[in-house]
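Inputs:
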Amino acid sequence: MANWFSRTPRRVEVPRLRARNENQVTTKVDLVEFTPPLPEFLGRAAYVQLTIFENLSRAISSAPTVAAKTSIGRAAELSITKHRALADEIVEAGGAPAETMEPFTGAIDEFERMTHGGDWYENLVTCYVTAGFLDDFFVRLAAGLPAEAARHIASIYATGSGEQVLAEELSAAIAANPRLASRLAMWGRRLVGDTMLVARSALHYTEDHKSDEARIEPVFTELIAAHTRRMDALGLTA
Amino acid sequence: MANWFSRTPRRVEVPRLRARNENQVTTKVDLVEFTPPLPEFLGRAAYVQLTIFENLSRAISSAPTVAAKTSIGRAAELSITKHRALADEIVEAGGAPAETMEPFTGAIDEFERMTHGGDWYENLVTCYVTAGFLDDFFVRLAAGLPAEAARHIASIYATGSGEQVLAEELSAAIAANPRLASRLAMWGRRLVGDTMLVARSALHYTEDHKSDEARIEPVFTELIAAHTRRMDALGLTA
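Outputs:
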């Protein structure tokens, strides 16, 4: 792989799937016009994944049962493996993982603090909602990277997430205590705003902000639709 | 694999490498005479591994640098993968992971509390020392399991541990702050007692306790020698 880290820090120009001002209707909206340079993409994606892992590992430590610990363990395993693969990708591209992540830690740590739930159940919803949304988001954003990196990163995210495991834990908790439902639905609604902010901060805008917004909006509409399906799977209204 | 879980809870008799009263000199001492039945082995080993993972994930959350977080992430990944493989082995043998671990959680949770360090450095020494010792121990103990299970479990532990990564983090910390050395050496000495207790509690003794002790002792001598090498690798006296 080319050394993307030794380049001067300018916008990496990638082949566009379509011209910027061509208002053609596409069936699948995408973010490729807003993809940041590879080091920035990897630094953010790797540190977000480390944060997802830390949230999952806290959910394991404070789990009410051994069954919950061991099943959430599967989600944590998938997440730390993704983080490691993204860190390996940084090395592959000629960078150092810690240095590459460093610039993005402040905002992502703050996001982590904002999305800290009041109890174990809220924290598990945080793991479920934020990981689901952000993995979705980074997969779409990766499509705008140089082809080889885009392929690698697509395969890293294709290893799956612990979403199913978390949905099962949460559904069981809600079934056992139906009063949790409205509180967790409300918590899910609050999370989506903070999560969208973190996603948006990864986008590189052009000079034409108004046109940018028009292009970005349909992608977020799709990401929110996926969020709604995730909440539905718990029997909760998004 | 046979369903070891549906059997009546009696001692699983495994082929002995040597007769119990044969005082022959062997070059490699072993624990096969004291191996518990498969479900008990797996329940303990899987829950110990989950505890090792939880300690590592706490070390990640409280790490002083992003570099430490991401490098300890590799140790955590190896550990949670081992836990999951042991849990899969429980399912393979006809059991349920949580139920199989449950009987051993009290003592292992207490061990975890006893070995909780006063700060990040002590906690990292706990990860390094207890995981090193207990992985060594369970590998030896597994040799006494039924052949197929013994093979599977040997391959699970053969995937390696994060020992090297932890040694590097600790060595760097001690180099940066030499005053840590004596405190961490003392902490390592304290840990080894608690760790040996947890290991011993996994052994199934025969009726002849005196003869048992004579057979077990050389194994612990070897395990302690490995511990000493681990402390040496940090430049610390065991």
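Remarks. Residues 9-27 of chain A have pLDDT under 50 and may be disordered. The longest helix of chain A spans residues 66-92.
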